[in-house]
TrEMBL record:
Protein name (Swiss-Prot/TrEMBL): Phosphate acetyl/butaryl transferase domain-containing protein
Keywords on record: Acyltransferase, Membrane, Transferase, Transmembrane, Transmembrane helix
One Pfam family matching this protein: PTA_PTB
Coiled coil: none
Length: 297
């Protein structure tokens, strides 16, 4: 089981064949910097798609000659469409958002005729490493589904579990996050969580509603008399809405000294979807997480 994002560097190293990464609007220093280390190591082969005439020269400043391919596009939407086509053709095993708006990027992904959607639900899984936790925790979904219903939450749970299993946690524990470990009256998300937690037949633990302290801080559950299996050792935190997920992830990063890797699942390949303000390390870790997930995630 990986315990830090830095371990992803070794986790994806030594592959027999480089993984093709189709990058939408790649003519950006931060994007190209995030590709450099893995390209030099032969882990990935970037397919860079961008409308800028400066793409090839800019890429050559960051990447070894012959290690990448450049494709021209008429605009950002065309760049996204051409990158998605590379996935459909089998040239790329992952799709990466570069310096482009999420709306333009995702429109190509979900296009009914030419897209790569494989599931009714596309969800974002953030894998976070915070100083006081001393381990990796997945938070989902803070980037795609605004207020998930029961069916969407089931898919979000499955995607979170798949990510943690890829990182070595065979039987992840899933916490359905709420303000308390009991069903709060007139709080629809808590009622939904209780229904989902009551389902049987899963190969992993799902509990909720559950508060953040019980989910992540050892000993709190015992103090509160919480009867479940989760006691500060949840591997996946499933949030009730996108605002909660976004705020939790950013709080761990900006106020908890945390670092993050993120991936979107539900397409025919993993999708690397980071903020345009994300640093090169976060982008690289996200690429490595997508590689760890493999095709068909």
């Amino acid at each position: 089981m990986l315990t830090s994002l830095a371990q992803l560097d070794d986790f994806v190293a030594g592959r027999d064949q480089a993984v093709g990464i189709a990058v939408v609007t790649a003519c950006d220093d931060a994007v190209l910097t995030s590709l450099a280390q893995l390209t030099e190591a032969g882990v990935i082969r970037p397919y860079l798609v961008d409308p800028s005439d400066a793409l090839e020269a800019k890429a050559a400043e960051h990447l070894p000659a012959g290690s990448f391919e450049c494709l021209t596009a008429s605009d950002d939407a065309d760049a996204a469409a051409k990158a998605v086509a590379l996935v459909r053709e089998g040239k790329a095993g992952a799709l990466m958002k570069g310096h482009v708006s999420s709306g333009t990027f995702l429109k190509a992904v979900v296009d009914r005729e030419t897209g790569i959607r494989a599931s009714a639900v596309l969800s974002h899984v953030a894998v976070l490493q915070a100083e006081k936790l001393g381990r990796l925790v997945a938070v989902t979904d803070g980037g795609m589904v605004t207020v998930p219903n029961a069916e969407q939450t089931e898919a979000i749970i499955d995607h979170g579990v798949a990510v943690m299993r890829a990182l070595g946690r065979e039987a992840p524990k899933v916490a359905l996050l709420s303000a308390a470990e009991t069903v709060i009256p007139r709080l629809p998300s808590a009622e939904l969580q209780a229904e989902l937690a009551a389902k049987t037949g899963r190969e992993y633990v799902v509990e909720g509603p559950i508060s953040l302290d019980i989910a992540l801080v050892p000993g709190i559950g015992a103090e509160k008399g919480y009867p479940g299996e989760i006691s500060g050792d949840a591997d996946v935190i499933v949030v009730p809405d996108i605002v909660t997920g976004n705020a939790l992830s950013k709080s761990l990063i900006y106020f908890g000294g945390g670092v993050m890797a993120g991936v979107v699942l539900g397409a025919t390949c993993p999708i690397i979807l980071t903020s345009r303000s994300a640093g090169a390390d976060e982008k690289r870790y996200s690429i490595e997480l997508a590689i760890a997930m493999g095709a068909g995630a």
